[in-house]
Amino acid sequence: MSDPVILERTQRFLSFLRHCQVLGMSVERADRSGLTLRLPYSDHIVSDPETRIIHGGAITTLMDTTCGISTACALPELEICPTLDLRIDYMHPAEPDHDVFGFAECYRVTPTVIFTRGVAYQRDINEPIAHVVGAFMRMGKTGVVGMKA
């Protein structure tokens, strides 16, 4: 179950990212343990019209966003934390006609960097499409314009 304060914070954060709105991403769950975002299946994210498989760039966007916004779950106040490093290992293609979920958690928070890890999946989180690890730079509340925690 989501934490109402963290859920609102992550939904607001996502609403500022225009490319995520175009892709139709939404927050499924958000609490201190992590964040789950949904990327709905649609024709405009298909890489090959014959197979109808989702383009890897859409999965990368989902996972970078999920890891980045998961920082809002771990910090007491909202901070903008740009991506320093992101690694995605693809296990297999996403199945056509099914939404993709991204889960990420912050496993280490330092004064300057937040370390995240997560998975992209469809039906079962234990059968991931991809694994991700990322590092995000802490900028403090300086970069938060119009976004109150």
Question: Termini separation (Å)?
Answer: 20 Å
**Tally of individual domains:** 1
The biggest beta sheet reads: 6 strands, antiparallel
Using the coordinates shown, work out and report the CATH topology: Thiol Ester Dehydrase, Chain A
**Average pLDDT reading:** 92
Strand order of the biggest β-sheet: 1-2-4-5-6-3
Question: Would you identify the CATH H-level superfamily?
Answer: Hotdog Thioesterase
Just name the CATH architecture: Roll
The helix content is 10-25%
Strand content: 25-35%
Structural class, by secondary structure, is: alpha+beta
* Top CATH class: Alpha Beta
Number of strands: 6
From the alpha carbons, calculate the radius of gyration and give it in angstroms. Answer: 15 Å
Keywords: Hydrolase
GO cellular component, one term: cytosol
GO molecular function, one term: 1,4-dihydroxy-2-naphthoyl-CoA thioesterase activity
Protein name: Thioesterase superfamily protein
